[in-house]
């Protein structure tokens, strides 16, 4: 049979129809022989089980021994070989043990029923069924066995290149999955696929992931792929408000979702920006922070596009009109919101900070926003010094007037709404307090006093 196996494994697609039929007949003949041998071995095992039961009763021992069955189950599981999985072997043996227990129990109740050697204990169908009835029942069972064999083991061939990609989402129904497979031509019958899933007990075990389906899989093999096969897992990823591009890329890389280089190169790819009808130089600032379901090993497009579409879904017409009423473009709103998110995590003071920055812009003052200087630091956040204030960059709001050229992070909805609906006041300055918030003032002398108190507190903390 080794030659048959090799031909099926390596040469099947190149064989003629007669050659395939010859192989099929050989395999069926071999299966018939194996079935006879299996039945003979099961009969032999059953005889041993009957004798064991009789010996136990002669010794006054209980017929049922749970510890012995546990040992058998554990040992049998180690015998499993592909393609028959351990779970399948355990299920088959569970039924064998059930029948052995039933026979032992019957003999314990009614006495020794079976003559194991003379042949008089053999069961005779003639006493129960006529030859015609026996043939009808046999034909029925052969038909049922053939149907099950077809459902589980018949290959499904599709047209086109292989593999085909199937994405399964969380909570996706079996009906929806069957329809998806059918519409892609991967299966020929939705009903057979669902029946196989119910019989195999896999309806609740299918995992959300992106799978690469090869050609010629049976229904059973498909279910094995969706239950325990390899695929790109679907993960729920949450991005915090004001996350930087570096932070976003690090998160995606750590979760094996996408590569950093591919994300960075796509953000300012002109062809991709044109496809999105995006008018600015980079998508930085427009990747809306919230929860997403992403597949492992995704392309940059599969990550960036839904995040930008989420921003568009949020920034509706009413918000665009509000930006115009404030005399700001969408890009200016996003840029201002990114600075606000860089300044504070407290929702309740975001609109006040927005008011301060807008007051400074309208008054012809420099923003002097520390987050814009932090954005220029190649090694991440640090305590700023005098040299940082002299960096020659349009993002240095201590050196240049107005808003920087673009966002410095990806602002969340609270910062965006604060930029659109700022608090109206006459405040021009603010400095961090000692509780994670900010203290605000109307003039520079008040601001300097508050700043001195804050830095005095900072220095005390560094000494302690």
Please supply descriptive tags for the structure shown above:
single chain, 464 residues, alpha+beta, Chorismate Mutase Domain, subunit A, Dna Ligase, domain 1, four-stranded antiparallel sheet, 19 helices, 7% strand
Explain this structure to me?
- There is one protein chain.
- The chain is of the alpha+beta class.
- The chain has 19 helices and 8 strands.
- It has a 4-stranded antiparallel beta sheet with strand order 2-3-5-6. Strands 1-4 form a two-stranded antiparallel ribbon.
- The mean pLDDT is 88.
- Helix content is 55%, strand content 7%.
Q: Can you count the beta strands?
A: 8
- The number of helical segments is 19
Please state the overall shape, judged from the principal axes of the Cα atoms: elongated
Helix content: 40-55%
Order of helices and strands: HHHHHEEHHEEHEHHHEHHHHHHHEEH
Structural class: alpha+beta
Mean residue pLDDT: 88
- CATH fold type of the largest domain: Chorismate Mutase Domain, subunit A
Q: Could you name the CATH class of the largest domain?
A: Mainly Alpha
Q: In CATH, what is the homologous superfamily of the largest domain?
A: Chorismate mutase
Q: What's the structural domain tally?
A: 4
Radius of gyration of CA atoms, rounded to a whole number? 37 Å
Largest sheet: 4 strands, antiparallel
Low-confidence stretches: none
Cross-sheet strand order for the largest sheet:
2-3-5-6
Approximate strand percentage: 5-15%
CA-CA gap between termini: 80 Å
